[in-house]
TrEMBL record, chain A:
Keywords, alphabetical: tRNA processing
Species lineage: Eukaryota, Fungi, Dikarya, Ascomycota, Pezizomycotina
GO molecular function: nucleic acid binding; tRNA-intron lyase activity
Biased composition range(s): Low complexity: 1-16
UniProt keyword tRNA processing, yes or no: yes
Species: Aspergillus mulundensis
Disordered: annotated span: 1-24
Protein name: tRNA-splicing endonuclease subunit Sen15 domain-containing protein
TrEMBL record, chain B:
Region of interest: Disordered: 1-20, 420-440
UniProt organism field: Aspergillus mulundensis
Protein family per UniProt: Belongs to the SEN54 family.
Keyword tRNA processing among record annotations: yes
Protein name: tRNA-splicing endonuclease subunit Sen54 N-terminal domain-containing protein
Automatic annotation (TrEMBL), chain C:
Name of the protein: tRNA-splicing endonuclease subunit Sen34
Residue intervals of the TSEN34 N-terminal domain: 9-78
A cellular-component GO term for this protein: tRNA-intron endonuclease complex
Bias (Basic and acidic residues): 133-143
EC number: 4.6.1.16
Protein function: Constitutes one of the two catalytic subunit of the tRNA-splicing endonuclease complex, a complex responsible for identification and cleavage of the splice sites in pre-tRNA. It cleaves pre-tRNA at the 5'- and 3'-splice sites to release the intron. The products are an intron and two tRNA half-molecules bearing 2',3'-cyclic phosphate and 5'-OH termini. There are no conserved sequences at the splice sites, but the intron is invariably located at the same site in the gene, placing the splice sites an invariant distance from the constant structural features of the tRNA body.
Length: 202, 440, 309
């Protein structure tokens, strides 16, 4: 029943996503998934400083990291702490966040998820990187000494809370692409955290 | 945090806001029970949802409230089952099932000179009264009160025999005092089921009655849950696999009674004659010729055959447990005679969530086919008709004492000719309110 | 209520289910061991409703197993224990038991009479007070607040012991009561007719549990109260405190460590949880790690919420 292709119909221009995938030099078999999520983060959600990481486990799983335009997740206790000190989310430096790109129908298991979490940097390692950021902020916002002091107090407490797991421990963003039957390429995002982390109430 | 006074029930404002919340869904604060003025039947209404907290905090305040709630729960659970001497209802447990009373048994043997005493004893369940089920195991000598309208069956000696679920439910709600029979406490013969005078504890009653005659905890949870709400609940023919013959008989009856009938077949034939078989091989689908109405065109366009629940005639296989109807349920408003129960208002299959997987289509199919045809009222609204379906059954899925009810209906979308619907009386009566579906 | 029953608490195994019949045991398990079970019975004082249910307490096999592993409970073959226990009753024990029930029945009768008396007295008192207040109000023409309505309240669960009521009434009545006036009693448990601790021959081995048991044990060890979750679309509901007073935090589902998961499970679970302000929790035992004999100690679990983007 196939109708012969007529040469008169012009080939549509590839989408920017198609271009990205076809020009990528990524050799990973799931590279298309990774790039589609990266594309969604960059253009739909305005993330910046996006990077692709290849994590070293028995499974070959790529990870993306980047900085979101605004906070994606705040632990309920952290939120309470901030509210009590009059700190707003905008006052706090944005964190680099890890994103796990997956596609609907892909085989997953607890074992794989655990391997990904094991590969995430420990909270202590993150803190060193943040220490630099912290000083910068203090310098730039020195106008409001009171707020700066509160921020400093917050950063200090956060470092501790992350080590103890009080404000939740390791977390990542699970990105799932809808590519099944009739899938439209929508990407959905879920926050996944290690252990029992109480739910947000808003 | 609402305190007790705020949560007081019988408050005129409690009506609307909480109407769609099933309080039995979640553990409720037993302190609310203290406010339940259940003796005052005129004002009887459900307690308001107790306020709950998000998480524990180290305050004394919270600890005190929790402690008060637990105390209230403890008190409620410790409430004794007392029987006023004036209206004491006594039942006796008969571990070996229905049997004639001791006195009449000896009389019968003398008078009728039974051919073989032992044979007579074996056949006892049949001889004591046709209505008494073989699974009955508690008898009440002086049955009185409203409960026996829908519970138990009387024998020739006007003793009322109760099935295990009926007896256990009556004991549990503090209505019946079940006694150990003499044989169970080491008195008398093996089959001496006279009252020993020793009352059975709730614990003993569960040990003796649960698991008897196919009574599982799941089935019992459904039974008591519905009884507590006022429904009459009877065992259905599908109760045990050995009852299969009864099921097939019931099904055969229902087919004979409610099948399509000659008129149905005739109208189908007429329909076929008028419209003719649409041929799509040549020419347009709607056919050539004159079309005076859209209906005719739509009929021509309905090429895809659809399933009609009314005309499926082939006898279906027997439903197999657990996907078989085990309870027949009657609304409190249904006039009900236990000797000749009418068609049930609801048919329920009980499923143990822990041991059963999601049913296959054929299991659901067989289950639905085993129920009598119950077509929707033709003058009801479209969505009501679709929801009711032509057959329907309720699945009670029980997860460790927690029951969820799901209704399965054989909806006939193909029979609802949307094009034939005439908008009557403007928008108001046209179709159903849409939000009903949106909400879900 | 704060009494501690003798350990191990006998858990009745009847027709494949685990039950606790003693109110003290039920309260103790809830308070001290965060085991709630499901109240499966009818409350005799309010039998026509499903919001508040009563004993017996039906335990999940997981709960029964956990209690046995902790040495808090033991499983009893209740059917055989009852059968044999009742058969081998001594005549004297029976008589003694019946006597005891009778005196309890008489006591209940007296209590009931006293309660009626007290209600009547209080009602009359209130009535008089009201009348007096009304008269006063009429006199002063000022808004003296009327006595709060409380006369309809029920005293069944009142902490105030009836002994505080006028003693002369009860003593007068009790002398009139005979054995035929005693209330009949259906006891909740078979003790003291049968021994509280059934002999070892009626004990059963550890309950069989589903493969989700490690997750159950893990969450329980972290202080969560767990209940069956089917009604909410999961395996267990996990509460941060007693469900009497707290909302649940998690809809929990167990998986085998290497079990293939459809990502749709995670998404639908996350969506379901977020919709009711709860977290979706999925977890299982890491088989590569030893549980060193403690069920659930090698479990890893992940909390999932919709990211809102």
């Amino acid at each position: 029943m196939a109708t012969p292709a007529t040469s008169s119909i012009p080939t549509p221009t590839p989408s920017s996503l198609s271009n990205r995938i076809s020009t990528s030099t990524d050799a990973n078999p799931v590279a298309a998934t990774t790039h589609q999520v990266l594309h969604s983060l960059q253009h739909q959600h305005q993330w910046t400083s996006l990077q692709i990481h290849e994590i070293d486990t028995k499974f070959s799983i790529p990870l993306i990291s980047g900085i979101p335009p605004h906070r994606v997740y705040t632990h309920p206790d952290e939120q309470l702490y901030m509210v009590e000190r009059g700190l707003r989310e905008e006052d706090v430096e944005l964190d680099r966040m890890f994103v796990l790109p997956t596609v609907q129908g892909q085989a997953w298991s607890l074992e794989r998820m655990a391997a990904v979490f094991d590969a995430l940097p420990e909270p202590a390692e993150e803190n060193e990187a943040e220490a630099e950021v912290e000083e910068q902020t203090e310098a730039s916002e020195a106008v409001d000494a009171d707020k700066a002091a509160k921020l400093a107090e917050y950063y200090e407490y956060r470092a501790k809370a992350r080590r103890t797991g009080e404000w939740g421990s390791k977390r990542l963003l699970l990105a799932v692409i809808d590519k099944g039957m009739g899938g439209d390429g929508t990407v959905v995002y879920y926050v996944v955290q290690e252990g029992t982390v109480k739910p947000r109430q808003n | 945090m609402a305190d007790l006074d705020e949560d007081a029930i019988n408050n005129s404002t409690t009506g609307g806001a909480h109407a769609d919340i099933d309080l039995s869904d979640e553990t409720q604060d037993f302190r609310m029970l203290n406010n339940l003025s259940f003796l005052d039947t005129a004002n009887l209404s459900l307690p308001k949802r107790g306020e709950k907290d998000f998480e524990p905090n180290p305050t004394v305040f919270q600890a005190d409230i929790l402690s008060a709630s637990r105390q209230a729960m403890h008190n409620a659970l410790a409430y004794p089952r007392l029987h006023h001497p004036k209206n004491l209802l006594i039942g006796v447990y008969a571990p070996n099932g229905p049997a004639p009373p001791a006195i009449s048994k000896s009389l019968d043997t003398v008078a009728e000179e039974a051919p073989a005493e032992k044979a007579a004893e074996k056949a006892a369940p049949v001889s004591i009264g046709a209505q008494v089920p073989a699974d009955a195991c508690v008898y009440v000598t002086k049955a009185k009160g409203p409960f026996f309208k829908s519970l138990g069956q009387a024998d020739r000696w006007s003793r009322v025999w109760l099935l295990p679920e009926e007896a256990l439910y009556l004991l549990e709600r503090g209505t019946l005092d079940i006694r150990w029979p003499r044989c169970a406490v080491g008195d008398g013969d093996e089959d001496d089921i006279e009252d020993s005078g020793l009352p059975m504890s709730l614990q003993a009653a569960y040990a003796c009655l649960m698991g008897r005659g196919g009574l599982t905890m799941e089935r019992y949870s459904v039974f008591t849950g519905l009884r507590r709400l006022g429904y009459a609940v009877l065992r259905a023919p599908g109760w045990s696999e050995s009852d299969e013959e009864k099921v097939s008989q019931a099904a055969a009856q229902s087919v004979a009674r409610q099948g399509p009938g000659l008129a149905g077949i005739f109208s189908r034939f007429m329909g076929w004659l008028c419209d003719g078989a649409p041929t799509t091989a040549v020419g347009p689908v709607a056919g050539l010729g004159f079309h005076h109405s859209y209906d005719r065109i739509y009929r021509k366009l309905s090429l895809i055959p659809f399933y009609d629940p009314v005309t499926s005639a082939s006898p279906s296989p027997q439903p197999r447990l657990p996907y078989a109807v085990v309870w027949h349920v009657y609304k409190p408003s249904t006039s009900f005679r236990k000797s000749a129960p009418p068609d049930p208002d609801f048919k329920i299959a009980v499923i143990n969530a822990r041991t059963t997987t999601i049913p296959t289509v054929s299991q659901i199919w067989t289950l639905l086919e085993s129920t009598p045809l119950n077509p929707p009222r033709p003058n009801s609204q479209l969505y009501v008709r679709l929801k009711n379906g032509y057959r329907n059954v309720i699945l009670a899925v029980v997860d460790q004492g927690v029951v969820s009810y799901l209704k399965i209906a054989d909806a006939a979308f193909g029979k609802e000719k949307l094009y034939a619907q005439r908008p009557s009386g403007g928008n108001k009566n046209r179709g159903p309110p849409r939000h009903k579906f949106k909400k879900r | 209520m704060n009494s501690s029953p003798d350990l191990p608490i006998p858990i009745s195994y009847i027709a494949g289910n685990y039950f606790v019949f003693s109110v003290d045991a039920a309260t103790f398990l809830r308070r001290e061991h965060h085991i709630c079970g499901v109240l499966a019975g009818t409350l005799p004082q309010v039998p026509q409703q499903n919001v508040f249910t009563g004993l017996p307490l039906e335990l999940m096999p997981e709960e029964a197993r956990l209690l046995v592993e902790k040495g808090v409970g033991c499983i009893v073959d209740e059917v055989n224990f009852q059968k044999q226990g009742m058969k081998s009753l001594m005549e004297e024990d029976r008589k003694k038991y019946l006597k005891e029930l009778e005196s309890q029945g008489l006591e209940s009768k007296q209590l009931q009479i006293r309660r009626k008396e007290r209600l009547r007295e209080e009602y009359l008192k209130k009535k008089n007070e009201k009348a007096a207040a009304k008269a006063k109000k009429a006199e002063e023409k000022q808004d003296t607040s009327a006595a709060p309505s409380g006369e309809d309240s029920v005293f069944l669960f009142d902490d105030r012991q009836p002994s505080t009521s006028p003693s002369h009434v009860s003593s007068r009545r009790s002398s009139v009561l005979g054995a035929s006036d005693a209330m009949g009693i259906t006891p909740a448990i078979s003790h003291p007719l049968l021994p509280q601790q059934p002999p070892a021959e009626h004990h059963l081995p550890l309950p069989e549990v589903p493969s989700s048991y490690p997750l159950f044990a893990h969450l329980h060890s972290k202080g969560y109260f767990l209940s069956p979750g089917l009604r909410f679309g999961c395996q267990y509901m996990a509460y941060p405190g007693d469900p009497l007073r707290f909302h649940s935090h998690f809809l929990a589902v167990a998986a085998e460590w290497d079990e293939q998961l459809d990502l749709m499970t995670i998404i639908s679970g996350g969506r379901l949880g977020t919709g009711v302000k709860k977290g979706f929790l999925i977890g299982g035992a890491d088989k590569s790690r030893d549980d060193s004999g403690v069920a659930g100690s090698n479990v890893r679990a992940f909390s999932i919420e919709w990211a809102g983007m």
